[in-house]
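Supplementary notes (optional reading)

For those who missed the lab, this is the record we used. Protein: NAD-dependent epimerase/dehydratase family protein. Length: 319 residues.
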Amino acid sequence: MTSKALILGATGGIGGETARQLQQTGWQINALTRRAQNRSKINWIVGDALDPKAVSCAVQDCQLILHAVNPPGYRDWDKLVLPMLENTLAAARQTSATVVLPGTLYNYGADVFPLIDEAAPQHPVTRKGQIRVKMEQRLRRFAEEGGRVIIVRAGDYFGPHAGNNWLAQGFIKPGRTITTIANPARVNVGHQWGYLPDVAATITALVAIRERLQPFENVHMAGHWDDDGRQMVTAICRVVKKYQLRTPKDRAFPWWLMRLLAPFQTTLKELLEMQYLWQQPVQLSNTRLLAVLGSEPHTPLEHAVEQTLLSLGCLPSTR
């Protein structure tokens, strides 16, 4: 039988990249989207992840559901995120589908820093983190009830077609030649990054062996560890220089301005909530991932940055 997956969030960075890589390994893809799409070989189904009937219809014959959908623009997370997940779990019960969730660092507080393994307690310090913890608790109960779950946790996402992320919203400005880089990290404070194609490759590899995994499988990716908070900035400068453009200037991210503007803009408020992840080193241990896969997909940082900047329109199409 041909394997089939339902992607919730296929128009986003992690959903779209995972759909592409699953297709390359022979999977057929259903994708639920609120607006009609006409691209790639995906079977696009118009519907809303908040509509249980729409999700139920879209999951027909699917052995996998990637839950990579979020409310648009950070609005009403506390009201919409968990109902979306319940619709996914109800659909997974229909076809005994494995549920995959891209995890985040938001679940953790400083009590488990700087190195976090899969068994670390989750004591979030932000509203968004509290919601993410509730999601994973619900997924664990689903697994205890007989379902199958895979959580793949990585650092801050970046990559081609990534949605809301620090690289595009903080460091640089999409669609413009890079003249300055705003670095949110404190001096000599390490930070974790997850390149979307590597995350998608990890998900694809785990899905291929899902029957051999634990019913509730939680793995962390090492990704790109920026040990002094400067490596991402340095990689951006090197890539820009390759295109014979002027080397960007490096400046500190204006956290003071975020505090002034946050009350008036939801996105800035969300960014400000995550400041604590830039003030102290936060690193994920990939011990469990190596135990089940043997190795972790890893793209060299400079190449990953180049592909990201090209997709953001910050570099000439040729050099």
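If you only remember one thing from this example: The chain has twelve helices and 14 strands.
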